[in-house]
């Protein structure tokens, strides 16, 4: 513990520093104050935004492209109602300069209000990431009516499995980068209580990560359901792995076709999946399950974070809108070797991944094909895009098998190309 | 973690039980000490710079520990952390530092003339000698909590102060972010380069934020005196050379440190220090002297002897592999250093290493000749 004498010494030396930096006696006195509010004020005077502006010269992510010293200066001292700051939003983008070929987003929201309070930074990032979508002027359509999907059953000779995922956040509770332990536990409680109300083919069980038996853990691994503590620095630098595995868990129905992750990268990640090509049924269960969960939480006075501008609010700006990735594992041995494959995918607004998920390479001829877009088109529109696209790819594959010609389709219109 | 100035107040909406961490599977000093009652008392407090009890313990919550190694499980964000959260930190310090009490006083002695011997360790056995410590600059938050502006200010001050060193201490600063490939390779070859922390113990406390901004390495032209800036502490100061002349290493260490301290004072800054805790550093395990004096020494016979551990314990020494903490020894060569940091002065700790290593080498020579070592077993220090 510092004696009065050493505190006096420290006071004098810090006073000399502050004086040399031009801070007056008032600022000096405040910085040494035991009152943290006054000390915070003095610190702002001593360290202007320019002294804190991050060095982004070697960076290649959406945040680094959008954040100017002027924007930083205006936003640095702002707080959301949950006391989340801009520095916390951008920490992951500062710590992860990015890859020369892949442009990551480089920032996260700590709460729903982050997208408002820091709109000056988030809006241009959203525009950059989501094909020119302008949150200031545009509205995002939500449509979970799965009956609208046509031609949604694929040829099982080509499509091995079908899956749709999204995320949902519970309004009023901070997001994974920012939440306290109590808030995170509250998210778990709200969601698990609601899921216990699901019936019929959706009835299921919750497995808390912390309380799992070895046997349960092995079963979840065998089912490819278990998620592990994040190791990607994109996530750990965004404070999302704090207090692991407290209040994290996995819920799934008895059939293992409807699955929910609790408190991983988002409050919830909701997944509907099955073997084979019946995407229509997968999406039907997805929509039905989501609506029932929403109804169950509303009965207890909760709701999902959603607004007209941005659709469903999730932690990463890349998942705004629908947060939806609908995809299949599909065999395309001939088409994948055709030089036009990438262009065809591009024009169909589809992306390919290896069957291990994002950043994996394809093994053999089987690819994970899914929608590129998340915001500005509804769930039904995006799933229909995926359905039409995969049907087109399978048609190309069959034509190539028969030695027939294939065509690159016209590009699907966007807000901007 | 630099949460907003009033984030703590928001957490007070929830009860202490709702916020109290689950420590049932934990084995670190913090988990042994932090009861629900203590958490309730401390959660409403914060240091003037806004560091809270949750910030202190985050690394210990995220890293339950190892069944065999007892980690500390908490860090300081500023000098005042040790005062505001003394209810938590005093018992941890007592447990970690051999019963050091909240009322005890720590002696600082950087007068290397007080060291007896130390220039006489047999270089056939002692391959290299090294002394390291850390220093924090008063008035700035520590690595877990500092803003970019503060970290850069610490770097600027350090560069200025170190640039004034002269004679055999004259040297050069290499900023991590500006390093050329040639410079980087040279620093790797010299075993000087430190990399971004990968240990989850450090990452979970927020020390790697904004890497490599304002981080760097300074060393003298002779490569015997080295300073790390803004790694785990504001400064880490290292004196080292091949062979067994620990006295020369310690002389240079004390001269260099004293000079650096006065250069900082000339610029209006003191190091964080007080009568009770000595030099204040980020991790409670490094309080007091923050000093680890050690040698790389060949002990192939002694290390296989049943009494090896007992001798180390009685001499207050610890062994590590030559890769540093948590590595295994290779080829019978061990890193032997002082186990203590707080409650003994720098001179006392280096004396223990000098006396202890001299004894270990004597024992090694006896065992080589097939002689017994029973009659030279030391008493417990």
SSE topology sketch:
The complex is a heterodimer of chains A (417) and B (381).
Chain A: H1 4-20, H2 25-31, H3 36-46, H4 49-52, H5 62-66, H6 69-75, H7 86-95, H8 114-117, H9 119-129, E1 159-168, H10 181-195, E2 204-208, H11 214-222, H12 233-236, E3 249-253, E4 258-262, E5 268-275, H13 279-299, E6 306-307, E7 311-312, E8 325-331, H14 341-347, E9 350-353, E10 366-371, H15 379-401
Antiparallel strand pairs in A: 1-5, 1-8, 2-3, 3-4, 4-5, 6-7, 8-10, 9-10
Helix pairs in contact in A: 1-2, 2-3, 10-13
Chain B: H1 7-11, H2 16-19, H3 29-33, H4 36-42, H5 53-62, H6 81-84, H7 86-96, E1 126-135, H8 148-163, E2 171-175, H9 181-189, H10 200-203, E3 216-220, E4 225-229, E5 235-242, H11 246-266, E6 273-274, E7 278-279, E8 292-298, H12 308-315, E9 317-320, E10 333-338, H13 346-368
Antiparallel strand pairs in B: 1-5, 1-8, 2-3, 3-4, 4-5, 6-7, 8-10, 9-10
Please provide a brief summary of the model.
The complex is a heterodimer of chains A (417) and B (381). Chain A has helices at 4-20, 25-31, 36-46, 49-52, 62-66, 69-75, 86-95, 114-117, 119-129, 181-195, 214-222, 233-236, 279-299, 341-347, 379-401; strands at residues 159-168, 204-208, 249-253, 258-262, 268-275, 306-307, 311-312, 325-331, 350-353, 366-371.
Account of the 3D structure:
The complex is a heterodimer of chains A (417) and B (381). Chain A has 417 residues and is of the alpha+beta class. Among the domains of chain A are: 43-130, ATP:guanido phosphotransferase, N-terminal domain (Transferase Creatine Kinase, Chain A, domain 1, Orthogonal Bundle); 146-331, Glutamine synthetase/guanido kinase, catalytic domain (Creatine Kinase, Chain A, domain 2, 2-Layer Sandwich), CATH 3.30.590. Helices cover 37% and strands 13% of the residues of chain A. Chain A contains 15 helices and 10 strands. In chain A, a hairpin with a 4-residue loop joins strand 3 (249-253) and strand 4. The radius of gyration of chain A is 25 Å and the shape is globular. With 381 residues, chain B is of the alpha+beta class. Chain B folds into 2 domains: 5-97, Transferase Creatine Kinase, Chain A, domain 1 (Orthogonal Bundle); 112-369, Creatine Kinase, Chain A, domain 2 (2-Layer Sandwich). Chain B is 33% helix and 14% strand. Chain B contains 13 helices and 10 strands. In chain B, the strands form 2 sheets. In chain B, strands 2-3-4-5-1-8-10-9 form an 8-stranded antiparallel sheet. Chain B has a two-stranded antiparallel ribbon with strand order 6-7. Chain B is globular, with a radius of gyration of 21 Å. Chains A and B meet through helix 1, helix 3, helix 7 and helix 10 of A and helix 1, helix 5, helix 8 and strand 6 of B.
């Amino acid at each position: 513990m510092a004696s009065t004498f050493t505190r006096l010494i420290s006071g004098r030396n810090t006073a000399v520093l502050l004086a040399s930096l031009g801070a007056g006696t008032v600022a000096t006195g405040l910085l040494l104050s035991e009152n943290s509010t006054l000390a915070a004020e003095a610190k702002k005077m001593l360290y202007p935004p320019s002294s804190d502006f991050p060095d982004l010269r070697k960076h290649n992510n959406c945040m680094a492209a959008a954040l100017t010293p002027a924007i930083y200066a205006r936003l640095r001292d702002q707080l959301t109602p949950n006391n989340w700051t801009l520095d916390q939003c951008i920490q992951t983008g500062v710590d992860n300069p990015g890859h020369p070929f892949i442009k990551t987003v480089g920032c996260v929201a700590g709460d729903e209000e982050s997208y408002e309070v820091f709109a000056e930074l988030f809006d241009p990032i959203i525009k950059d990431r989501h094909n020119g979508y302008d949150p200031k002027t545009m509205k995002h359509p939500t449509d979970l009516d799965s009956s609208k999907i046509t031609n949604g059953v694929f040829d099982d000779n080509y499509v091995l499995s079908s899956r749709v995922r999204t995320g949902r956040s519970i309004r009023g509770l901070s997001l994974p980068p920012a939440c306290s332990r109590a808030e995170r536990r509250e998210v778990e409680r709200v969601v698990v209580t609601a899921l216990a109300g699901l019936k019929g083919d959706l009835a299921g069980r919750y497995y808390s990560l912390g309380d799992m038996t070895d046997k349960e853990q092995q079963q979840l691994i065998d089912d490819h359901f278990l998620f592990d503590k994040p190791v990607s620095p994109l996530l750990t630098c965004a404070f999302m792995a704090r207090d692991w595995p407290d209040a994290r868990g996995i819920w799934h129905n008895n059939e293992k076709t409807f699955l929910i992750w609790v408190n991983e990268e988002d409050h919830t990640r909701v997944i509907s999946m099955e073997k084979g090509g019946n995407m229509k049924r997968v999406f039907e269960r997805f929509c039905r399950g989501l609506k029932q969960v929403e109804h169950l939480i509303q009965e207890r006075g909760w709701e999902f974070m959603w607004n007209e501008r941005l659709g469903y609010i999730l932690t990463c700006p890349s998942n705004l809108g629908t947060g939806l990735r609908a995809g299949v594992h599909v065999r395309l041995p001939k088409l994948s070797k055709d030089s036009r494959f990438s262009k065809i995918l591009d024009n169909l607004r589809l992306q390919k991944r290896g069957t291990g998920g994002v950043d994996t390479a394809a093994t053999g001829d089987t690819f994970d094909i899914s929608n590129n877009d998340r915001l500005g088109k509804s769930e039904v529109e995006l799933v229909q895009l995926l359905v039409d696209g995969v049907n087109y790819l399978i048609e190309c594959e069959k034509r190539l098998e028969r030695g027939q010609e294939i065509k690159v389709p016209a590009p699907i219109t966007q807000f901007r190309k | 973690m630099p949460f907003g100035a009033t984030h703590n107040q928001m957490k007070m909406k929830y009860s202490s039980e709702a916020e109290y961490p689950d420590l049932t599977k934990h084995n670190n000093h913090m988990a042994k000490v932090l009861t629900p009652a203590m958490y309730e008392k401390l959660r409403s407090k914060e240091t003037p710079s806004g560091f809270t009890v949750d910030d202190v313990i985050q690394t210990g919550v995220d890293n339950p520990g190892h069944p065999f190694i007892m980690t500390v499980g908490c860090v300081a964000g500023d000098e005042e952390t040790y005062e505001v959260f003394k209810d938590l930190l005093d018992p941890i310090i007592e447990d970690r530092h051999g019963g050091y009490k909240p009322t005890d006083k720590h002696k600082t002695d950087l007068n290397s003339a007080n060291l007896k011997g130390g220039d006489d360790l047999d270089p056939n056995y002692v391959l290299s000698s090294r002394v390291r410590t850390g220093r924090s600059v008063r008035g700035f938050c520590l690595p877990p909590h500092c803003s970019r502006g503060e970290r850069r200010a610490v770097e600027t001050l350090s560069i200025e102060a170190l640039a004034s060193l002269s004679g055999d201490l004259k040297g050069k600063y290499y900023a991590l972010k500006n390093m050329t490939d040639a410079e980087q390779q040279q620093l790797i070859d010299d075993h000087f380069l430190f990399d971004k922390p990968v240990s989850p113990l450090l990452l979970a406390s927020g020390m790697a934020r904004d890497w490599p901004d304002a981080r760097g390495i300074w060393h003298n032209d002779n490569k015997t005196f080295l300073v790390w800036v803004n790694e785990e502490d504001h400064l880490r100061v290292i004196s080292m050379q091949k062979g067994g002349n620990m006295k020369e290493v310690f002389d240079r260490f004390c001269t260099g440190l004293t000079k650096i301290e006065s250069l900082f004072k000339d610029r209006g800054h003191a190091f964080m220090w007080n009568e009770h805790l000595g030099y204040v550093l980020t991790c409670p395990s490094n309080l007091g002297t923050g000093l680890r004096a050690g040698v790389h020494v060949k002990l192939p016979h002694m290390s296989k002897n049943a009494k090896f551990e007992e001798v180390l314990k009685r001499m207050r020494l610890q062994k590590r592999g030559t890769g540093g903490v948590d590595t295994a020894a290779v080829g019978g060569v061990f890193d032997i250093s002082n186990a203590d940091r707080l409650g003994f002065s720098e001179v006392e700790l280096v004396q223990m290493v000098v006396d202890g290593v001299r004894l270990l080498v004597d024992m090694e020579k006896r065992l080589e000749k097939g002689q017994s070592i029973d009659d030279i077993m030391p008493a417990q220090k």
